[in-house]
Design a protein that fits this description.
With 261 residues, the protein is an alpha+beta fold. It contains 7 helices and 14 strands. It folds into 3 domains: 27 residues; 159 residues, Immunoglobulin-like, CATH 2.60.40.680; 70 residues, Type 1 dockerin domain (Orthogonal Bundle). A hairpin with a 2-residue loop joins strand 10 and strand 11.
C-alpha cells in the first residue's frame, strides 16, 4: 500500500514538472498573437469548393494560455459554421485544432463568441478555431469578405471583453490590447487577368512587336513569363515554337482569324 502511495506521489511530481516545463517554454514569449487567415480565391476555385471556404483563426504566439473567451465576426453577406472541436476539424480534411472550445455561441449579427477553459492544449501554437465561410454565389472578382477578431463588443446590453488566461496571471487583467495582438483576415475573390492570345509583350495589342518577342524566345534570347507563355503557346505544349511564330504572323496580316491551335 505504501509503495502504491509512493508511486502516486512520484507520478504527480512528474506531471507537475512536465506542466512546469511546458509553461516555462510558453513564458519566453509574453505576448499572445492571433492571426486570422487571408485567402485569395479565384472564381473557378470558389465554384469548385462549393462556395465554402475554410478559414483558420490561428494562435501564432503563445504566452502560455489556459483559458480564452473571444469574439469572431464574419462578413454579414456570408453564412458560416464554426468548428470548435479538434476531431471534427480533422475529419473535414483540415489540420487539427489546438484544443476543443468548451462552447460557442453564434449571435444573429454574424458574430460568434467562443469559450475555452482548462486543459487539453496540444501544442504551443496552431489553429484555435476553424470557420467554414459560405460565400454568396453572386460573388465576383474583387469582392472581399472580412473575418475579424473583436476585443470588445456591446451586444443587447451585454458588455463583452475578450479574456485570455495564462498561468500565474489574473485573467481579468491580462487581455489588454498591448498584450494580445491580433490581425484580421479576409477572403478575396481574385481572378487572373484574362490573357490576350498573341500579345507576347502584354501591352494589350497584338502586332509585329509580339512576333519579335516570340522569335527571341524561340532563339533562346528571351525567357517568357508564365502569362506571356500562356499568350503564345497556342498548342499548349509548354514550348514556344517556329510554327507559333508563323501562326502569329499570319494572324497579324489577316491570313487567319484565330490563334487557337
Ligand atoms: Ca503586344
Ligand atoms: Ca507550343
Amino acid at each position: 500500500m505504501k509503495f502504491q502511495k509512493l508511486i502516486a506521489v512520484f507520478t504527480a511530481c512528474i506531471a507537475m514538472c512536465h506542466n512546469y516545463s511546458v509553461l516555462n517554454a510558453f513564458a519566453e514569449e509574453e505576448k499572445i498573437k492571433i492571426e486570422i487567415e487571408n485567402k485569395i480565391i479565384s472564381s473557378e476555385e470558389l465554384e469548385n469548393m462549393n462556395y465554402e471556404i475554410p478559414v483558420f483563426v490561428n494562435l501564432t504566439a503563445n504566452a502560455g494560455i489556459n483559458s480564452a473567451e473571444f469574439i469572431i465576426s464574419v462578413d454579414s453577406r456570408c453564412d458560416y459554421e464554426v468548428i470548435t472541436d479538434s476531431q471534427q476539424a480533422f475529419e473535414t480534411g483540415n489540420e487539427h485544432l489546438l484544443f476543443s472550445m468548451t462552447s460557442s455561441h453564434k449571435f444573429n449579427d454574424n458574430c460568434c463568441r467562443l469559450l475555452w477553459a482548462g486543459s487539453g492544449i496540444t501544442e504551443d501554437t496552431g489553429a484555435l478555431v476553424l470557420l467554414m465561410v459560405q460565400i454568396p454565389e453572386d460573388a465576383i472578382t474583387g469582392d472581399v469578405f472580412e473575418i475579424s477578431y473583436f476585443p470588445e463588443l456591446d451586444y443587447q446590453n451585454y458588455q463583452f471583453k475578450h479574456l485570455w488566461g495564462i498561468a500565474g496571471r489574473e485573467i481579468k487583467n491580462y487581455a489588454t490590447d498591448n498584450e494580445v495582438i491580433f490581425s484580421n483576415g479576409e477572403i478575396k475573390i481574385q481572378d487572373d487577368e484574362p490573357v490576350i492570345l498573341g500579345d507576347a509583350d502584354e501591352n494589350g495589342v497584338v502586332d509585329i512587336l509580339d512576333v519579335i518577342v516570340v522569335n527571341k524566345a524561340i532563339l533562346g534570347q528571351k525567357i517568357l513569363t508564365k502569362t506571356q507563355m500562356k499568350a503564345v503557346d497556342f498548342n499548349q505544349n509548354g514550348m514556344v515554337e517556329p510554327d507559333e511564330s508563323l501562326m502569329l504572323m499570319k494572324f497579324i496580316v489577316g491570313l487567319i482569324d484565330s490563334l487557337i491551335a
